[in-house]
Amino acid sequence: MTQYATFRNPIVEKAADPWVMRHSDGYYYFMSTQSGTLELTQSSSLTGLAGGRTKTVWTPPPGGRYSHNLWAPEIHRLGGKWYIYYTANDGGGDESRRICVLENGAANPLEGVWEWKGALSTPVPGLDGTVLEWGGRLYFLYAGYGHFPDYGSAIYIMRMANPWTLEGDHVLLTAPTLAWEKQGGMAINEGPVILHRNGFIFLVYSASTTWSEDYALGMLTMKETDDPMNPSSWTKSPNPVFRKSVENGVYATGHNSFTQSPDGSEDWIVFHALPAPGAETSLRSTRIQKFTWKPDGTPDFGIPLGDSQDIPVPSGEF
Fold this sequence. Notes:
Elements: E1 6-7, E2 16-22, E3 28-33, E4 38-43, E5 53-58, E6 68-78, E7 81-89, E8 98-104, E9 115-119, E10 126-134, E11 137-147, E12 151-162, E13 165-174, E14 187-197, E15 200-207, E16 216-223, E17 235-236, E18 251-260, E19 267-274, E20 285-293, E21 299-300, E22 311-312
Parallel strand pairs: 12-14
Antiparallel strand pairs: 1-22, 2-3, 3-4, 4-5, 6-7, 7-8, 8-9, 10-11, 11-12, 12-13, 14-15, 15-16, 16-17, 18-19, 19-20, 20-21
């Protein structure tokens, strides 16, 4: 009988807001919130992120407007260069949060120089910036603070003139109006991430507070032929598409990214979670699992797998 290699979650301890990018160079690039600095990991395997080559690529000048609370970094490859988008503030509250941009022209993002390109001029303070590249244009999505009517965050989209410059006004795509989006003491839609497949563009987001056991993933769906700047193009799922599993002992499942197996045949979701209700947020860990697709072309993320479950490694990983 053939024996298949397996792994168990979590794959990286104490790693919140995980972002994983599979690049054409054969490596996976991983980032997570480390608060005071930005660290980038290069790994030859998806399950081996914890043992990859890690480098601190940015330490902000002390005492500046963007020197505290570096959250949710994402690395993107746009126009032949590398860009990192991350949230930072001056040590104060939500009103001082902005999304900042770094650029690197080297072929290997662990080499070269990361250049500060500035803080994006979003109409309201915000966090969790990401980029949609579609139809020859760049679009920026982020979570902006406000009252909807409860205080919290909602997800907006803007056009980009280039990877570090926004243009025009923002457009509201989803606000936390449903009960499951308002758990833990705040009304939250944050952490937007794009998944493009089967003629659709999916915007997956995190809802409720990250410290709540009910932190969960919601989803907007758009036909790829529609205009992403038009709110009516997007249909919001009325219920979470991925949420805690009491049976498997996995809670606060959110702030995710998507990647593929080394051979490109499988789709994988990357997310953070807590091991118990009420656990400290410092215990948020990075987990991965394969997901499938429904007959209508939409994703089926299943339920989060428990720590004691043996999971086959991604296809093409040895």
